[in-house]
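Sample entry (120 residues):
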Amino acid sequence: MPVDAKSAVALMRTAIGASGWLMPITAGRLFGMDVSKDVSAALFLRLGGSRDFALAAGPLVTQGRASKQMLKIAAACDAGDILAVVIARRRGKLSALSAAMFGAASAGCLALTAKALTES
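Predicted structure, serialized as tokens:
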């Protein structure tokens, strides 16, 4: 049975959130970053994980216009994430691999969110 875009993006965001919460150091490594020596990295990954859980749940627990508004908020967060990746890369704070992986994850969420908006 095919999964609609709203459910697909919720699953993707839930996986991202869970990885930030349950295995922040491993999640960092999966995105090409060694954050094991950064004392605040796990905190920031868990904070981001909480945000992803909220962005996953919002459109699923609301209906109609409220659901569309939640999807728009999620899309704005994705666009902000992409901009943050570009800034970090330009300032030399992120490797090309990490930038590509973070950018791809954010762009994937943005694309699925845009699709969910058109399906609503």
